[in-house]
């Protein structure tokens, strides 16, 4: 595990903390490797139900490491972008919900990382943006694609062309953030949300994520086919029997994840 990425697992909830505060958690080789390792490990762990991703110090992530990128050739830059994209896809495709606890700056690769997560909760102290045009480059870790899918093409272009850094409140209005909390309530709120999700039928939650991720970029009919298939698969689970029986018996369901 990278010295700059910590992870813990408690009561089915993984907490991944990027811990390079002296560089505002800028994404260098070590952090990217640690991030990949943490999510691969959490993906293999059967007790995981949700994951929270956050940053230590005053930043979530202030972007890809500019000092490490400055001397890259075009060939190396392409490989760097592809590596970051592969790791962020791993997070997006993680079988369980991933909640970004955006504690501070989420700029460039930092906002791109948050956007690869399923749900984004921001502290009032958070600031977000894609400031790459100030550096003579464009986002390389998915920003042009995920931002446009989240806020729409025109609002995404506005943010990409201007490099504007927006407040947490503005991010909430644009739909980048699901909620904004006081700074000291950020992690408690994310833990509460993760615990709420962890009490639901795990396979059903996982299939919801899969259906949205896979289906919404396809024509509606293809997305609906994916939904019908995953809906059918839930009827082969013990949790479907338990969930419906518990409703009929007017008692809380006890899900086992099968
Ligand atoms: N890369 C490398 N180092 C970074 C960094 C980054 N993205 N962001 C901050 N740091 C470093 C600073 O260089 C500084 O280190 P030193 O003390 O050694 O000089 C340290 O972190 C603290 O930063 P500041 O002194 O700048 O802190 P501040 O509070 O005055 O400013 C900030 C904070 C506004 C976030 C400012 O640091 C900043 O503008 N950072 C760069 C943001 C940015 O442009 N991100 C996009 C990167 S490109 C990208 O991400 C491309 C992609 O899509 C793959």
Automatic annotation (TrEMBL):
PROSITE patterns: ENOYL_COA_HYDRATASE. It comes from the Bacteria. It holds the Pfam family ECH_1. GO terms for molecular function: hydro-lyase activity. One of its GO terms (biological process) is fatty acid beta-oxidation. Keywords: Lyase. Belongs to the enoyl-CoA hydratase/isomerase family. PANTHER family: ENOYL-COA HYDRATASE, MITOCHONDRIAL, ENOYL-COA HYDRATASE-RELATED. This is Crotonase.
């Amino acid at each position: 595990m990278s010295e700059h990425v910590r992870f813990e697992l408690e009561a089915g909830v993984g907490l991944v903390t990027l811990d390079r505060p002296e560089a505002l958690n800028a994404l260098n080789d070590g952090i990217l490797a640690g991030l990949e390792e943490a999510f691969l490990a959490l993906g293999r762990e059967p007790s995981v139900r949700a994951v929270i991703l956050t940053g230590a110090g005053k930043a979530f992530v202030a972007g890809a490491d500019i000092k490490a990128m400055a001397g890259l050739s075009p060939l190396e830059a392409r490989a760097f972008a592809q590596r970051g994209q592969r790791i962020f896809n791993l997070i997006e495709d993680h079988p369980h919900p991933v909640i970004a606890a955006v504690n501070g700056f989420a700029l460039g690769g930092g906002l791109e990382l948050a956007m690869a997560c399923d749900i984004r909760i921001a502290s009032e102290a958070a600031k977000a943006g894609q400031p790459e045009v100030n550096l003579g480059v464009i986002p390389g870790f998915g920003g042009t694609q995920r931002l446009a899918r989240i806020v729409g093409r025109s609002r995404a272009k506005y943010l990409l062309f201007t490099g504007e850094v927006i407040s947490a409140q503005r991010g909430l209005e644009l739909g980048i953030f699901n909620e904004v909390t006081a700074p000291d309530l950020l992690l408690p709120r994310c833990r509460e949300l993760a615990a709420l999700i962890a009490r639901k039928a795990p396979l059903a939650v996982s299939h919801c994520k899969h259906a949205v991720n896979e289906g919404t970029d396809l024509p509606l009919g293809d997305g609906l086919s994916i939904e019908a298939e995953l809906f059918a698969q839930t009827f082969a689970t013990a949790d479907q029997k338990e969930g419906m029986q518990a409703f009929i018996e007017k008692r809380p369901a006890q899900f086992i994840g099968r």
